[in-house]
Amino acid sequence: METPSVESLRLLVAVADLGSISAAARACSISQPSASSRLRHLERQLRLDLLDRRTRGAELTPEGAAVTEWARSVTAAMDALQTGAEALRFDHTVRIACSQTIAEYLMPAWLARLREHTDEPVHLTVGNSAAVVADVRGHVADLGFIEGPTVPDDLASRTVRTDRMVLVAAPGDRLARRRDDRPLTAAELAELPLVTREPGAGTRDALEAALRRAGFEPDPRSIALGTNAAVKIMVAAGGRAAVLSELAVAAELRDGRLVEIPTEGVDLHRRLRAVRRKDAAPREVVDTLLAVASGRAAGTPRARRGSPR
């Protein structure tokens, strides 16, 4: 059966509300003959008599009354769709999803720098790298920043900077008593019951990938926590070490709450990446943020809201 058009359903609702085909035609900005023809076509499509034309004006048949109530739901849904689509067209907000370390230690400065180039509004959400990838794939975010060692094939990526992860412990931990000329080996690191981030976090994934490249599996006795802050608090309490970004522990290393334990035989450097959908439409504000994050934004002209992007 051919699907009725929304315009025909809207006309039927108008007939029900206004009591005549001529009044409904005027309300829908069409001629009365066109309205009559459209309603007859709707009846043929549905194989139902919707109007009793023998009476003065036009009255709904019982079948017509039922169809009209369903038609109200359809036309209301279409109105909501059109209103929402219009709102999206005029919403210039760039939606950024950001993994935790980048969000805490890099993104604030990037956004401040972005304001020197554009006044487009920005909405930032924070999660682990797996959540960021899901948001970008699901069109929840226009741009994502991740810390993990891999990027899915269906996303485009760009390295914005490199990062070094470091092994840290409390000052009184037995690891802190090792001499600087006795760095912890990859094998020893793999055997440590660490405090780590949760599964899906880029810091955890990067550490596990580094150990596997060195030929080792991480100790399964590790305790997983959901934030960098929680990991640092547990490490500072003593008894367990952690591998975190040097960005995340810089303040604690400076004031002595944590100490860095030298390592060897495992490369703890990683790349911090921006990711976006390959079919994403170009946006000037996104390109500007990428330039800021990569340190290449000097001299970019300021873009005003509503200008072509």
TrEMBL record:
Q: Which residues form the HTH lysR-type domain?
A: 4-61
Membrane-crossing segments per the record: none
Residue stretches in coiled coil: none
Q: Which UniProt keywords apply?
A: DNA-binding, Transcription, Transcription regulation
Q: Which InterPro entries match?
A: LysR_HTH_N, LysR_subst-bd, WH-like_DNA-bd_sf, WH_DNA-bd_sf
Q: Which GO terms describe its molecular function?
A: DNA-binding transcription factor activity; transcription cis-regulatory region binding
Organism's domain of life? Bacteria
| Family per similarity comment | Belongs to the LysR transcriptional regulatory family.
Tell me the protein's name.
Answer: ModE molybdate transport repressor domain-containing protein
According to its UniProt entry, this protein's organism is Tsukamurella tyrosinosolvens
